[in-house]
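yo, Holliday junction branch migration complex subunit RuvA is done. seq:
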Amino acid sequence: MIAHLHGTVTAAGGTHVVVDLGGLGVRAECTPETSAAVRLGERAELHTSLVVREDSLTLYAFSNPDERDCFELAQSASGVGPRIAQAMMAVLGADGFVEAIAGEDPKRLAQTPGIGSKTAQKIILELKDKVHALGAVRDDISTSPSDAGAWRRQVAEGLEGLGWSAKDAESACDAIAPMAEDETDVAVLMRAALQTFAKKR
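structure:
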């Protein structure tokens, strides 16, 4: 099991980062929030979870261990794979995930793309005892884009990485553009963008 990466960031996209470990470049899938928090050319420590399949080995990275633990816990629910679990972390974060499960709030959990109300209720039923044992508490991570257009690029890439089309991603960015004039936290903007899709349902 690969528990963490500590090296120089050589690349970062909407939902992935590449960390150089002494000449070995390791790519890890991540949430838009984690991607936005790292800086190219600087060292970073990421907490990771390795997902093993018959035809692939995929590493997922998170800014803090609580988020990683919630990502792994989410996958213990039937029908929840790493992609959905990653989307949960992108939309809710560790705190939001724990609160939704512990508070038995399917509506909040269903804010995640790919999760309907019935699926959310099933996940809560399966995880409510486990999440109390987890006791995860997530530290707030503030991420400030380095230029005015950075938030749009990061949010659009993140939405596309979660399965939305480029057109939908741009429409969501347009909808939250007024908010972005005062809000610099990419994670907050990402969640606001996802909320625009929920309002259209």
